[in-house]
Design a protein that fits this description.
- Helix content is 32%, strand content 25%.
- With 323 residues, it is of the alpha/beta class.
- The protein has a single domain, classed as Class I glutamine amidotransferase (GATase) domain (Rossmann fold).
- Helix 4 links the parallel strand 4 and strand 5.
- The two termini are 17 Å apart.
């Protein structure tokens, strides 16, 4: 009788400890993830555009504005030249930003090996930001009209499998510039623009619109009010991401924080850096929506280990009692 009672006691102990283990394992506390709303910890390489200057300091240009804009987002930002890109410097970055300027200069300066380095960087999970000439450069081809002559150009980066078209003479005849309205696609499904106004006034300086019809998985982020054609697009390219913009949201008109002075004679009726940050967060694969993630507290881990040890000991004692 005593032996039976002892066996029952051990069985009850085993059942109780098992229940404790299951209960402990299924009541792991959960906490909200910290909501990251900037690019802290992200490294951004801003291409210098093939400058003939030996200096790597930002100049008063689209490059300068991109540099200071990404700094404002708390990213770590460096100016890189074509030699560094060809040598593999992009391996240490998450985003490359190619500014406005001249796509032909980029084609000559970067050459095949520089373009291949950027292609590989994006294909393997990096992100590409292209503004104006940086957007033209990323297209499979682009159509450019100047002085009554139109040409089709292929510069080989080929991230966007469609065509860029410009300049848009109805907004500003090249080489003139003007502020232009773009309508935001707030319900685009990939980049959170819920806090943005429905229309932005943005500097236009010869940039493209994008022919996206018939091309899958290209998201129009904004359209020119002038012709209702895509002004900003976003898409995935193999393992990476791409954001292209025809106008210049990086220039913060009537403000000195973009490192530029010449654009302050214009007024953008606010700032476009908020929408730029939303695009950059998407490029950097930062989810700004809070989620629930399970965590294991140290005390829970200790309790689990202790429970398993006691159960193992109880089983061992039962086996010895039976012998």
């Amino acid at each position: 009788m005593v032996s039976i009672l002892q066996h029952r006691k051990y069985r009850l102990l085993l059942v109780g400890l098992t229940v404790l283990l299951v209960f402990t394992g299924t009541t792991i506390p959960r906490i909200d993830s910290q909501q990251q709303d900037d690019l802290m910890g992200i490294k951004v390489a801003v291409y210098d555009g093939g400058s003939s200057s030996d200096s790597t300091d930002p100049r008063e240009s689209s490059m300068a504005a991109l540099f200071w804009m990404f700094r404002w987002m708390n990213a770590t930002v460096e100016i890189v030249n074509s030699s560094a890109i060809k040598a593999g410097v992009l391996e240490g970055f998450q985003i490359i930003a190619v500014p406005g300027g001249y796509a032909y200069d980029y084609y000559i300066d970067l050459g095949y090996s520089g373009a291949k380095a950027i292609q590989d960087f994006v294909s393997e999970g990096g992100a590409y930001w292209g503004t104006c000439a940086g957007a033209y450069y990323a297209c499979h081809e682009f159509k450019w009209t100047e002085n009554g002559r139109t040409g089709i150009y292929h510069y080989g980066l080929d991230l966007f499998p469609g065509r860029g078209v410009g300049p848009i003479a109805g907004i500003a005849d090249w080489p003139n510039y003007a502020m232009t309205d773009v309508r935001m696609n707030v319900s685009n499904g990939i980049i959170d623009l819920s806090q943005e106004p429905s229309t932005h006034s943005i500097m236009y300086y010869g940039g493209p619109y994008f022919e996206t019809e018939g091309i899958d998985d290209i998201i129009t982020m904004a359209s020119y009010s002038y012709n209702d054609m895509p002004a900003m697009i976003a898409f995935e390219h193999e393992a990476g991401k791409v954001f292209l913009t025809g106008p210049h949201p990086e220039w913060d008109e009537d403000s000195f924080r973009d490192g530029c002075i010449w654009d302050n004679i214009l007024d953008d009726n606010g700032t476009d850096w908020g929408l730029c940050k939303s695009a950059a967060l998407w490029l950097a694969s930062i989810d700004i929506s809070p989620e629930q993630y399970p965590i294991l507290d140290l005390q829970v881990i200790i309790a689990l280990a202790a429970s398993i040890s006691v159960i193992a000991l109880a089983v061992l004692i039962m086996q010895l009692r039976r012998k």
